[in-house]
Write a structure and sequence with these properties.
Elements: E1 3-4, E2 10-16, E3 20-27, E4 32-39, H1 42-49, E5 56-61, H2 67-76, E6 79-83, H3 85-91, H4 99-112, E7 115-118, H5 123-155, H6 174-177
Parallel strand pairs: 2-5, 5-6
Antiparallel strand pairs: 1-7, 2-3, 3-4, 6-7
Length: 178
């Protein structure tokens, strides 16, 4: 498990959702400088952190909506780190959770050097990775459905589906797609 141990003047924990985000900013001594629930968009985020931009690091949960925040921080020259969700659960493990507590915990772990790191995938490679993940999902779904039909066929002793459902010749090859 890797942890973020960089030293900064300000630490921002962001509990990010699709439409909103909760931002908590701590100083180097752990004093809460900002706690705010705001819209999840670049303008709102930059407005919230403006007084603390000097030596700021932003930490965020690794969920589906982090791409825009990572790209914004890169453009603005702000340090950005992504938390590893599984390791975070092991490190944090609180029973009560809400956006304010999550954002504060992210900022506190950043400041204390116990923030579990996930890899921030480069912007140029994200589309390919996402495409491969979606393709894998559909391939597995197809195999699951074919197995279900085949099991039902065997269960009721129906005629065999034959080779039609399994033949590669009936499918579009990757050469045809790319």
């Amino acid at each position: 498990m890797r942890f973020y141990d960089g030293q900064h003047t300000h630490y921002a924990g962001v509990d990010l959702h699709t439409k909103t985000m909760f931002v908590c900013v701590l100083d180097a001594t752990g004093t809460v400088l900002l706690e705010r629930n705001t819209l999840a968009n670049p303008k709102s985020f930059l407005k919230a952190i403006t007084p603390f931009r000097e030596e700021l690091v932003v930490g965020c949960e690794c969920i589906l909506t982090w791409y825009w925040l990572a790209d914004l921080c890169e453009r603005e020259g702000i340090a950005f780190v992504l938390e590893h969700a599984l390791y975070m659960k092991a490190v944090h493990g609180d029973k009560t959770k809400n956006d304010r507590q999550d954002a504060h915990t992210i900022a506190r772990l950043l400041r204390g050097g116990t923030f579990p790191l996930a890899h921030v995938y480069p912007k140029e490679k994200r589309a390919t990775r996402d495409l491969l993940r979606r393709r894998t999902h559909f391939v597995r779904k197809r195999a699951e459905l074919l197995a279900h039909v085949q099991n039902t066929s065997w269960q009721y002793r129906l005629e065999s589906l034959g080779e039609h459902a399994r033949q590669d010749a009936d499918r579009i090859s990757e050469r045809d797609v790319f």
